[in-house]
Structure prediction request, 332 residues.
Amino acid sequence: MATKSTKKLTPVSKLLDGLIAGGKLQAYTPEKKPLKPVWDKLICARCALCSLYCPDAAISRQEDGYFEADLDLCKSCGICHRECWFGAISMQEVE
Amino acid sequence: MDTYSLFAGQFLPFTERYLPGGHNACAGSGTALALRHVYKALEEKNVDFAKASWDETPAGIFAPHEAPGAPVLVLPKPDESSLYICFDAESAPKKIKTEHFAKKNPAKAAASGCLYVATASPSHPFDLIEKVRRGWSVAGSAYIHILCPCPSDWGFDAENTVRIGRMAVEARVFPLYEIAEGHYNITVEDKNPRTVADYIHRQDRFSTWKKNTIAALQQQTDDSYAQLKNNAAHEIN
Prediction:
């Protein structure tokens, strides 16, 4: 004799809620906006520590000697912001 | 790291020759950071990375239960010996125990005939790069054990990866040393070490640990460090 399952499954339509709009699959947008590192050039000493500690090799030296992150590679982990000795890097929301 | 070595990063090569643009490691992954430093160290050494292979801790040389499932990068040298680099993320199958912190692989590698054996951490990048270069240039097999903090597995924020690695060194849970031809040498030493509890309470993986377990780990850390000091003192004199 099969017992009746008391656990209710969530309907698929509810799982896809927000992903499908107007019959088309939308790109997944997380609630939290990603952050990007921004350098304060008045404080930055160009010591290259941020570029050394970046796990994704996203930070590279620019022509003027200061550093900038390639936002295609950056995963906004915040290691550069945490490890900067001078506090020159702040994490700001991507517009 | 002292104040003067702060600017030493400028003398390292800025080209990322071997790291592909945009790998799929997690944000703040210690393994990716350590691998990047290894590649940076070997950039000017004419290494044939086509012959490099990934292996799970080779059971013939090392005890596989010491770092279960830890990937080992095997770089063959021109003289038919190899450079083994173990990326240890301390991934425990069920529950982390105090035995996971007794790193016996370096001593075993030295006993099994590796001429250069070292431990390294990506939180001390210049130390790591120097050790990898030495391991490559020595005439014989070399083994380097790297502790890679893992934010998702250990349970801390991704921005603290380097801090946790540095804390492991400062608390002497993972002392940085090298064994060159049987001679022990402690490369990074703090006179005022952190307590193990200080290192532990920042990570979620220790949330089930009781006070007596922490005390046991402190005792084990002190003992193994005293043993290491003893080894270092004996070999020099």
Observations:
- The mean pLDDT of chain A is 82.
- Chain A has three helices and six strands.
